[in-house]
C-alpha cells in the first residue's frame, strides 16, 4: 500500500509573498554562520508537533525493527540495522517545516501495540533548552530491542539557506545478544532558497552506522542536489570491515524512495588488464562480465507509519497538551492565534527559568540521568530482558503512572 506520510516527495514549497517578506525581515538581522536557536521563527514554518514526537518517525516501521535480534549472521543483522535507519527519513510534512522547539522538562510518551501481540514503549524528554538537547528511549521487550540516544541540533544561517546540524548519537542495543550495540551518527538537514527561489529541504553530509563488536561500519554520504543537475534525496554508502577497511557491500538510491544494495566486486572497480582490453577490442565476449544489478534493499514508499498511542489524560508539560493551542492555530491556518499561543508558552517558560535562577533551583530531569555528555534512561539498569513481562510492567509504571 502506498505510504501516506508525505504528499511532497521532493520537499519543496512556494512561499506566499507576505511570508517571504517576513523571512527577509528576519534575515536582515542575521549574520552568516549565526546560531539560530535564540531566533524566534514565524509560525508558518512550523510542523504541528514537537521535536520530541518527531523522533518517533524512526520507530514508525516495526517490520524493520522487530526482526533484527533474530538474525544470526553478523553482516545480515548489520544490514538490517542500516535498512531500519534509512527507512525513517521519508516521513515528513508537506513543504519545508520544522517541529516545535521543546521547552525544558517537556516530555512525550507513547506505546505501540503490535500485530503479533508484542508491545513497545517510547519516552523523550527535553533535558536542556540552552543549548537544546532531547533524550529518548524506546524498547520492545518481547523482541529485545532498545533504541536510545540524544539529539542536540544546532541551526546555522548561511545566507540563502539554513542548516540544522544534527549532533547527537542513536544507539541500537540488543539485550539478547550480550547488549550488542550499534552507534549511529545522523546526517545534517538543509533548507535551501529560504530568501529567493523555491524552498527545498535536503539531507546532506556524512552519516555513519558502526558496530564495534562485529567490526562493521557503514559510511554513508547524503548528497544534496546540484544547482543544475543531480538526483534529489540521494544517498550512497559502503559497508566495510572496520579493522581492514575491506568493502563488503555498496548502498545507493533515494532515502525518499528506492534504496539498493549490491555485494562489492573488486573486479568491477579495478582497472582492466592490458590483455583484457586487447581482447575487448577484438570483440571477444569470453571476458565480458555482465555487471550484477543491485538488489532492492527497501522501497520506503510501500510502508505506512505505524500508529502510536498517547495517554488521553496529558500532564501539563506533555508535548501535545503543552502546544495544543499552537497546534490548533496552525491547523486552522490562523497564524495570529498560533503566534499568540506560541508566545504564551515561551514567555511562561522564561518566567519560570528566571524564577529558578533567582532562587538557585537546579532543574531535575524526570526520565534521564546525565552521563558525561550523554543521557541515560534512569530505569535502564532495572530492566531484566530475561523476563520481558516484567520489563513491560516496569515501563508501564515508570512512564505512565
Describe the structure using short key phrases.
single chain, 401 residues, alpha+beta, 14-stranded antiparallel β-sheet, two-stranded parallel sheet, globular, disordered N terminus
What does this protein structure show overall?
- The chain is an alpha+beta fold.
- 23% of the residues lie in helices and 32% in strands.
- The chain has ten helices and 18 strands.
- Strands 1, 4, 5, 6, 7, 8, 9, 10, 11, 12, 13, 14, 15 and 16 form a 14-stranded antiparallel beta sheet that branches. It has a two-stranded parallel ribbon with strand order 2-3. A two-stranded antiparallel sheet has the order 17-18.
- α8 packs antiparallel against α9.
- It starts with 11 loop residues before the first strand and ends with a helix.
Rg, Å, rounded? 23 Å
Would you tell me the structural class of the helices and strands?
alpha+beta
Quote the distance from N terminus to C terminus. Answer: 37 Å
Strand elements, count: 18
Low-confidence stretches: 1-9, 12-28, 272-276, 278-282, 284-288
* Percent in strands: 25-35%
Q: How are helices and strands ordered from N to C?
A: EHEHHHEEEEEEEEEEEEEHHEHHHEEH
For the report, how would you describe the main beta sheet?
14 strands, antiparallel
How would you summarize what this structure contains?
This protein has 401 residues and is an alpha+beta fold.
Present the secondary structure layout.
Elements: E1 12-13, H1 17-27, E2 46-50, H2 51-54, H3 62-65, H4 74-86, E3 98-100, E4 107-113, E5 119-128, E6 133-140, E7 145-157, E8 161-174, E9 180-185, E10 188-192, E11 199-211, E12 216-223, E13 234-241, E14 246-254, E15 258-263, H5 266-269, H6 274-281, E16 295-299, H7 319-322, H8 324-331, H9 335-358, E17 368-371, E18 374-377, H10 388-400
Parallel strand pairs: 2-3
Antiparallel strand pairs: 1-11, 4-5, 5-6, 6-7, 7-8, 8-9, 8-10, 9-11, 10-11, 11-12, 12-13, 13-14, 14-15, 15-16, 17-18
Helix pairs in contact: 8-9
Amino acid at each position: 500500500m502506498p505510504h501516506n506520510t508525505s504528499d511532497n516527495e521532493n520537499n519543496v514549497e512556494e512561499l506566499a509573498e507576505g511570508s517571504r517578506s517576513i523571512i527577509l525581515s528576519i534575515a536582515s538581522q542575521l549574520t552568516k554562520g549565526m546560531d539560530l536557536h535564540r531566533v524566534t521563527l514565524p509560525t508558518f514554518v512550523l510542523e504541528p508537533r514537537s521535536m520530541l514526537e518527531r523522533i518517533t518517525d524512526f520507530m514508525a516501521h516495526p517490520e524493520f525493527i522487530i526482526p533484527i535480534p533474530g538474525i544470526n549472521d553478523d553482516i545480515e543483522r548489520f544490514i538490517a540495522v542500516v535498512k531500519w535507519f534509512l527507512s525513517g527519513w521519508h516521513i515528513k510534512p508537506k513543504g519545508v517545516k520544522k517541529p516545535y522547539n521543546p521547552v525544558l522538562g517537556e516530555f512525550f510518551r507513547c506505546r505501540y501495540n503490535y500485530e503479533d501481540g508484542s508491545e513497545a514503549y517510547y519516552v523523550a524528554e527535553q533535558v536542556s533548552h540552552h543549548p537544546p538537547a532531547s533524550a529518548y528511549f524506546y524498547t520492545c521487550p518481547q523482541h529485545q530491542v532498545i533504541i536510545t540516544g540524544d539529539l542536540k541540533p544546532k541551526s546555522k544561517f548561511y545566507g540563502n539557506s539554513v542548516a540544522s546540524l544534527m549532533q547527537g548519537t542513536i544507539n541500537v542495543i540488543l539485550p539478547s545478544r550480550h547488549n550488542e550495540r550499534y552507534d549511529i551518527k545522523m546526517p545534517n538537514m538543509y533548507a535551501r532558497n529560504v530568501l529567493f527561489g523555491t524552498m527545498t529541504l535536503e539531507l546532506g553530509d556524512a552519516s555513519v552506522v558502526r558496530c564495534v563488536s562485529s567490526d562493521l561500519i557503514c559510511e554513508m554520504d547524503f548528497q544534496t542536489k546540484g544547482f543544475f543537475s543531480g538526483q534529489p534525496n540521494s544517498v550512497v554508502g559502503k559497508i566495510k570491515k572496520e579493522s581492514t577497511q575491506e568493502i563488503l557491500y555498496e548502498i545507493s538510491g533515494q532515502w525518499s524512495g528506492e534504496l539498493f544494495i549490491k555485494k562489492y566486486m573488486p573486479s568491477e572497480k579495478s582497472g582492466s588488464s592490458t590483455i583484457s582490453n586487447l581482447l575487448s577490442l577484438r570483440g571477444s565476449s569470453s571476458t565480458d562480465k555482465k555487471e550484477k544489478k543491485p538488489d532492492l534493499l527497501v522501497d520506503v514508499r510501500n510502508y505506512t507509519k505505524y500508529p502510536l498511542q498517547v495517554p488521553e489524560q496529558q500532564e501539563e508539560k506533555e508535548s501535545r497538551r503543552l502546544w495544543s493551542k499552537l497546534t490548533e492555530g496552525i491547523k486552522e491556518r490562523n497564524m495570529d492565534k498560533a503566534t499568540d499561543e506560541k508566545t504564551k508558552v515561551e514567555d511562561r517558560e522564561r518566567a519560570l527559568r528566571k524564577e529558578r535562577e533567582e532562587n538557585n533551583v537546579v532543574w531535575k530531569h524526570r526520565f534521564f540521568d546525565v552521563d558525561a555528555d550523554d543521557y541515560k534512561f534512569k530505569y535502564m539498569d532495572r530492566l531484566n530482558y530475561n523476563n520481558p513481562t516484567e520489563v513491560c510492567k516496569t515501563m508501564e509504571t515508570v512512564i505512565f503512572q
